[in-house]
Automatic annotation (TrEMBL):
It is a multi-pass membrane protein. Residues 71-263 form the ABC transmembrane type-1 domain. Belongs to the binding-protein-dependent transport system permease family. It comes from Saccharothrix yanglingensis. It holds the Pfam family BPD_transp_1. The lineage of its organism: Bacteria, Bacillati, Actinomycetota, Actinomycetes, Pseudonocardiales. This is Sugar ABC transporter permease.
Amino acid sequence: MTRRVPGAVWHVGVLVLLAVVLYPVAWVVASTFKPSAAVLGDLRLLPDPATTANYERVFDGVVGIEVGVFFLNSAVLAVLSVVGTVASSAPAAYAFARLRFRGRTTLFAVMIATLLLPVHVLVIPQYVVFRRLGLVDTYVPLLAGKFLATEAFFVFLIVQFIRTLPPELDESAKIDGAGQWSVFRHVVLPLCRPALITTAIFTFIWSWNDFFGPLIYLSSPDKYPLPLALQLFIDETTGSDFGALMAMSVLALVPVVLFFLFFQRFLVEGVSTTGIKG
């Protein structure tokens, strides 16, 4: 009996902590069914009275633009970011992990050093460059770096994963006549599936939730992704529709959650079936 008491206390403590962590999320979801005027002044979870008017206003659009346009814009940016990051980071990581060339160690150290550089330091020079190229108010500034392996974190992640793969696999493929590209494509890349899926998951989430980048480079509302479109419900001069803001925020979370749940399965399978055993 005495042994069960600490266990019960521990479980109760965990449940209390879970409730504290999940309360803001539950409050946001509940707020989507409250009248807009009562959102900020009512901390109760159960709306009284409940209404679906917030979702109706969201689907009616904002500033004359349908909500589907914002979802499409976010999807385009997120999907292209995933494709660009994975397609560029994997070959760069393979070069750092497997190839031998002059200056490899120095270049790898410089790449790692960029992780210590605040992103805001580069905002002004990058904006000036894209401005002179006439690419402001397009998606090019938001996507160009993804296809050029500028995401040092993901390159480093894949490099570390490749280094855990036995070099004997590469040597066996080369004995069979495979070149560097064939080794990368048919041997290393399939075994890097967990690292690639991890890269895809984080890239999708970060791109979908990115507010700062679109705020800097986009000025046309019809090109706004969801995070930037949310601010259209807030008007400092007249009135702010917090109910519709909460409803659109919840809708914006759905694709991220579904993407994570779908690819998490492949991530677990990739780890369990990687085949690297003693």
